[in-house]
Amino acid sequence: EAQVTQNPRYLITVTGKKLTVTCSQNMNHEYMSWYRQDPGLGLRQIYYSMNVEVTDKGDVPEGYKVSRKEKRNFPLILESPSPNQTSLYFCASRLFTNISPLHFGNGTRLTVT
Amino acid sequence: DAKTTQPNSMESNEEEPVHLPCNHSTISGTDYIHWYRQLPSQGPEYVIHGLTSNVNNRMASLAIAEDRKSSTLILHRATLRDAAVYYCILRLDNYGQNFVFGPGTRLSVLP
């Protein structure tokens, strides 16, 4: 089944403890992206990648890192999480054509205390 | 990106048609109109997109006004599973990297 898989679904951590949220897609999509969703602010893009070893900042990149060493994986790294990074995170992928739709994972709910 | 305006919420009865409006008065000639929906506890999912002509697929229909300043997503027979937040998004006909999701319309379906 074609899908975007995020892990974990739920994560509770403490301030400053490095964490990684994994994202994997099995559709051979070139483009991958991370969003965060917060009440009243909607979905905001954090980082995106147009292909292997090509990444760029979205609208809210501060405090996050990403890497794209393989086409299928796009992990989101929080080197030193803070409480304002408590949010619902979504990974998405699509073919790198002009109007191809985004496919989203089921989300990771992160709580930083 | 041009902006879209949608009602905050709408209600429908099960098995009745639902018309979800979207205004995009500043749309440009190369903007595609996309619709996504987000079911509870899930990521957004693609519903449909169009440029000028009305479009149909297995999930919904998209009716686009002749001047393209508004569009309507039509669910022909709402089911309880259609309760979700529906997002209307404009996308440029290029390789633009971001989909800008607004607050959307929260659709409630009553049994």
Question: Could you write a compact summary of the structure shown?
Answer:
Chain A has 113 residues and is an all-beta fold. In chain A, 0% of the residues lie in helices and 50% in strands.
Question: Residue-averaged pLDDT of chain B, rounded?
Answer: 90
- SS elements, strand count of chain A: 11
Mean pLDDT of chain A: 94
Helix content of chain B: under 10%
Largest sheet of chain B: 5 strands, mixed
> Which structural class fits the helix and strand makeup of chain A?
mainly beta
What is the element string of chain A, with H for helices and E for strands? EEEEEEEEEEE
The number of distinct helices of chain B, counting runs of at least 4 residues, comes to 0
Labels describing this entry:
heterodimer; A: 113 residues; mainly beta; seven-stranded mixed β-sheet; four-stranded antiparallel β-sheet; B: 111 residues; 0% helix
Task: Describe the secondary-structure layout.
The complex is a heterodimer of chains A (113) and B (111).
Chain A: E1 4-7, E2 10-13, E3 19-25, E4 31-38, E5 42-51, E6 54-57, E7 65-66, E8 76-78, E9 87-94, E10 103-104, E11 108-112
Parallel strand pairs in A: 2-11
Antiparallel strand pairs in A: 1-3, 3-8, 4-5, 4-9, 5-6, 7-8, 9-10, 9-11
Chain B: E1 9-13, E2 18-23, E3 31-38, E4 45-50, E5 55-56, E6 61-64, E7 70-75, E8 84-92, E9 105-110
Parallel strand pairs in B: 1-9
Antiparallel strand pairs in B: 2-7, 3-4, 3-8, 5-6, 6-7, 8-9
Please describe what this structure looks like.
The complex is a heterodimer of chains A (113) and B (111). Chain A is built from no helices and eleven strands. Chain A is mainly β and 113 residues long. Chain A is globular. The N and C termini of chain A lie far apart (36 Å). The model of chain A has no long low-confidence stretch (mean pLDDT 94). Chain B is mainly beta and 111 residues long. In chain B, 0% of the residues lie in helices and 47% in strands. Chain B has strands spanning 9-13, 18-23, 31-38, 45-50, 55-56, 61-64, 70-75, 84-92, 105-110. Chain B has a five-stranded mixed β-sheet with strand order 1-9-8-3-4, with no helix packed on it. In chain B, strands 2-7-6-5 form a four-stranded antiparallel β-sheet, with no helix packed on it. In chain B, strand 5 (55-56) and strand 6 (61-64) form a beta hairpin. At the A-B interface, strand 4, strand 5 and strand 10 of A face strand 3 and strand 4 of B.
